[in-house]
Amino acid sequence: MLNLENDIRYIKGIGEKKAELFRKLGIFRVRDLIEHYPRGYMDWSDYKTVEECESGETVFIKAAMVSTVKEHMVRKGMTLYKCDFSDGKTVIRVTIFNNKYLAEALNIYKDYILYGKIEKKLTYAEMSSPKIESAQSGLGIKPIYHASEKLNSNAIQKAVKTALGSLDTLAETLSSDIRLKYNLASLDFAVRQIHFPDNFENLKKAKNRLIFEELLILQLGLLKLKSKRKKKTDFIISKNYTEEFFKLLPFKPTCAQVLAVNDCVGDMKKSFPMNRLIQGDVGSGKTAVAAGVIYSAVKNGYQAALMAPTEILAFQHYETLASFFKKSGIRIALLTGSASSAEKKKIKLSLLNGETDLIIGTHALIQNDVEFKNLALIITDEQHRFGVNQRANLAMKGAGVHTVVMSATPIPRTLALMIYGDLDISVLNELPPGRREIRTDVVDSRYHNRIYNFVKKAISRGEQAYIVCPLVDAANGNDLISVKAYAENLAGSVFKGVNIGLLYGKMKSADKEKIMRAFVDGSIKILVSTTVIEVGVDVPLATIMIIENAERFGLSQLHQLRGRVGRGNKKSYCILVSDSKSESSAERLNIMKKYSDGFFIADEDLKQRGPGDFFGNRQHGLPDLKIADMLSDMDTLKLCRECADDILKEDFNLDLPEYKALSLKITDMFGNSVPN
Ligand code: ADP
Ligand code: MG
After folding, report:
1. Most confident option among 142-146, 433-437, 537-541
2. Given ligand 1 and candidates 249, 567, 569, 596, which is best to mutate, with the most ligand atoms within 8 Å of its CB?
3. No. of H helices and E strands in the chain?
4. What is the C-alpha separation between 495 and 532, in angstroms, rounded?
5. What percent of the chain has pLDDT over 70?
């Protein structure tokens, strides 16, 4: 008998070679295989006759084999097997390529189900390399798995079948009370039916149960994280310095900015730690809000930290806040991975003895050896780039520390509440005045000369341009444009004499910083970059954003990139260059042309790419989900929230025997950041 924790090598038929292929798919243990749920199903009982189909349709046909197989060797390494089938009325001429094994397994006069594209001719039909299953055993709903080139869905199906066959009844993870209350099937039933459903009704029950369990574990984990922060805080702010702060700004704050800062300062006056999400579209002015919150914290005698996902952004925040706080006496330091160890040591010391009030930096900040004298506030910019675990680590920097996360990823409010359940939310629903719509055009590469002339004119007016390309190096046999080749080419031709900068993720941080600094101060006129500039950077004089191979980027990403321009009061342009002939690309790029609202675009992105991508780990920092989908399973999510609340009320530490299994699963999903 197998057990779930066994290595997949224990499954009959999986040798070391195959095991390696499974590992590449993230499948190491029997449990991983069992939880590699199908991505779809094919209903082999849903067959038709040739008469009922259109030519060109991909269909299931039930037909008997009516001729023997004839072998044709076309050339070395290519053998065709031809044979005829009949559905009772029409003959189907089937060609099988190279698959001797399949051809030899076929028996004349037996019934089969053929699956493939049917081509109807005058007196017969043709199918080229259809999938073929025996009509006796092959009927029913078959799973389709995420597979790889070397490990196809069928091979996975076989392994799952074997594994399920040698597993005992799976131990139940939910108490019978919960299963009764929420009408959930047993785990054993659900797991077996999700892979090999007897019918669609069972499939639905199975899905329902597994989705519930997954979302319940998610909610339990999140609620436990939250409770960790529900401790009292000692960092209470007595005075609100917001008014004073706004006088330091070079512009008049928007109403939304004032409200957001006051929300945060209000939170810090309470005896529980603040835990707030600030959502605002690109360009809504989140940095100034962060600065405002920091100002009050520091003026009340505390230290604050501001974290950014990239060094470039950390650097820029440093410059921005240093200029806001110029006359305030606030002592700021920048701590990034690229600082020399002597510098780092000095900065760390100054944090420990309280000589630095505000530290700005990247992840380097949350490394364990950074200690503070009296850190009271942590602000995380572009929150979706940080994982839950990182957030949890941060919260551990000090009990009772106030946290603010800022994000431009528009998540519907109800959903945000559910997945960040522990957060309060402020929305910046207003752009600073004087912003002009960014004109967006979609063109093909024949327009390059015109684009470059346009850029030249802008440069002569003192403006700057970004050019984003999908790749760093030219890859072989790939016609995508790479930043390096692109920048070289421009520098040697149309833009001779113009200072062109080059930026990509793998560069040394110090070099990145140098380039970015030169772009900010205007000595670099054109910045050729990968998407590393996607988040946050702000250069008001940059008025043109050119995106090459624009079809390669998701809508939300394009929106973020476009948000790099139009940040000053000059007319700005976004030019999407694409030679793609695909209709769906054209449609997507046109959405960019027509719409500028980030929430709307995110919605469209969601519709097109599916929530899997959008709510993938990358976007919201939550653990990966295997079967549930937070958008379409919102109703279940709500039930799970309620159920998780009940469970934790009864047994917060999940010590009761009926919750032991759940407790283990929480650790599986969240790692060790969730306390037991
Ligand atoms: P984001 O929300 O995308 O982080 P930023 O904080 O980078 O936006 O702000 C975008 C630009 O708008 C910056 O150049 C900033 O100085 C400017 N800005 C922010 N708030 C205002 C305001 N109230 N009035 C005018 N300009 C503002
Ligand atoms: Mg920002």
Report:
1. 142-146
2. 567
3. 24, 22
4. 23
5. 89
Tell me the β-bridge partners of 72.
80
Ligand 1 atom, smallest distance to 286 CA = 2
Neighbours of 618 (CB within 10 A): 12
Q: What is the pLDDT of residues 320-345, one digit of tens each?
A: 999 999 999 999 999 987 788 899 99
Please indicate whether residue 138, judged by its CB atom, sits closer than 6 Å to ligand 1: no
In three-state secondary structure terms, 147 is coil
Structure tokens at 557: 């990403």
Q: Are 462 and 468 in contact (CB under 8 A)?
A: no
Phi-psi region of 671 (alpha: psi -120 to 50; beta: other; left: phi over 0): left
Angstrom distances, CA of residue 259 to CA of 8, 33, 265, 292? 55, 50, 10, 11
Strands 58-65 and 111-120: antiparallel
Is the C-beta atom of 566 inside 6 A of ligand 1? Answer: no
Asked if 201 and 233 count as a contact pair (C-beta separation under 8 A), the reply is: no
Nearest partner of 373 among 305, 303, 306, judged by Cα: 303
Whether the model pTM is above 0.70: no
Torsion of CA 256, 257, 261, 262, to 10 degrees: -40
Mutate to test the pocket of ligand 1, among 252, 284, 287 (most ligand atoms within 8 A of CB): 287
Give 514's Cβ-side CA count (13 Å radius): 9
Whose CA is closest to 572, among 562, 581, 582? 562
- Name residue 499's amino acid: N
- Best mutation site among 248, 251, 520 for ligand 1, i.e. most ligand atoms within 8 A of its Cβ? 251
pLDDT value, residue 478:
58
Inform me whether the pLDDT recorded for 183 exceeds 90.
yes
The answer to whether 570 and 501 have CB atoms below 8 angstroms apart is: no
For residue 656, the CA-to-ligand 1 centroid distance in Å is 52
Q: How many CB atoms lie within 10 A of CB 602?
A: 22
Q: Which ligand gives the minimal distance to the CA of 283?
A: 1
Cα dist from 318 to 9, 31, 169, 332, 333, whole Å: 52, 47, 58, 8, 8
The span from the CA of 99 to the CA of 87, in Å, is 23
- pLDDT exceeds cutoff 70 at 491: yes
- Give the model confidence (pLDDT) of 145-173 as tens digits: 988 889 999 899 999 999 999 999 999 99
Which DSSP helix (H) or strand (E) runs through 441? strand 439-443
Q: At what angle do helices 255-268 and 286-299 cross, to 10 degrees?
A: 30
Element holding 413 (H helix, E strand): helix 413-419
Q: CA nearest 267: which of 406, 384, 421, 377?
A: 377
Token output for 645: 């609340």
